[in-house]
Hints:
Layout lengths: L1 H16 L16 E6 L10 E9 L5 E2 L7 E3 L1 E4 L7 E13 L11 E21 L3 E13 L9 E4 L12 E4 L1
Parallel strand pairs: 1-10
Antiparallel strand pairs: 1-5, 2-3, 2-4, 2-6, 6-7, 7-8, 9-10
Pfam families: DUF6452 (PF20050)
Keywords: Signal
Amino acid sequence: MKKRHILILLCSLVVFACEKDDICPEATATTPQLIVRFYDTISVDDTKSVSGLFVYGINDANETVFFKDISVATKDSIAIPLRTDINTTKLVFHSDFSIDDNGTPDDESDDVVLGNPDIVDINYTRDDVYVSRACGYKAIYSNLGATLTTDTDNWITNITIENNTIENESAAHINIYH
């Protein structure tokens, strides 16, 4: 009988030792993404879609970094993840993006990327905020800034900061005019 009570006690400890926050609920706020809205340069209050928009990053080794949920599309806004390991993210905003494989899809060396890429450096200050044991930390970005690299064919004409702090994804943080 004593062994049975000990077994029941051990089983109870195992079952009740897990806390409800051992699994991070999907509804829990995580590190927010940068929300960018695109506007018409001439009629600055009107949003304007970017044809064939493709956004990707450039890492410290100057290599292309593709984002999981970003594909080529025509749209007037986009959510982009920022780096959480340093205070700068280098992004390429590519308009009219397409790939011409010159009729030889098996030979990648013949591929030519078409369109107009503009490079934007997003600068910020990171603050890691504890969420819970299961969810860990999330980053909050403040002191947001953006710098356009000037080239001979910029399609981006101006960038404004709409919200200096990125705590959520409920409104645009940066406006890009084209």
